[in-house]
Design goal:
Elements lengths: L5 E4 L5 E4 L11 E5 L3 E4 L7 E5 L11 E5 L2 E7 L9 E4 L4 E4 L4 H6 L1 E5 L8 E6 L3
Parallel strand pairs: 7-9
Antiparallel strand pairs: 1-7, 2-6, 3-4, 3-5, 5-6, 7-11, 8-9, 8-10, 10-11
């Protein structure tokens, strides 16, 4: 996978969350949450954002736990629309973010973090994850 998030400032230790044994997840992958406390690689709008993979998970290796950063500052890539410092961001493709534009409960669930700098289309930017 490409465009993985890069940890800039660690604000807390990763927490273990459940993942499928058959899942292959690269370090730095944006993750979505399913019940109960289970993660998988995210790739589209309207997914419930939970955090970022802190280590690689090799597919079918017998492991069903994935360490997840639920907060920190990460370098991420804009999906192509550009963002402004202070914007709340959502998943907008595989390891891509865009300005969160959905109102209400759905919008709150899909927020990845807050843009700490302005970025043009497809540029990378610093994102505060988990402390909106």
């Amino acid at each position: 996978m490409a465009n993985e998030a890069i940890l800039l400032i660690e604000m807390s230790s990763p927490i273990p969350m459940t993942c499928a044994d058959g899942a292959g997840i690269e370090k730095g992958t944006l993750l979505q949450l399913t019940d109960p406390m289970t993660v998988s690689a995210s790739s589209a709008d309207n997914e419930i954002s939970i955090g970022i993979a802190a280590a690689e998970k090799i597919a079918s290796d017998g492991v069903t736990k994935c360490p997840v950063y639920i907060d920190g500052i990460f370098r991420m890539k804009d999906s192509g629309s550009g963002v402004t410092a202070g914007d709340l961001l959502k998943i907008a493709g595989a390891n891509l973010v865009a300005t969160a534009d959905d109102a209400g409960a759905q919008g709150g669930k899909e927020v990845v973090g807050k843009a700490l700098e302005t970025a043009g289309a497809s540029e990378t930017l610093a994102v505060l994850v988990g402390k909106q």
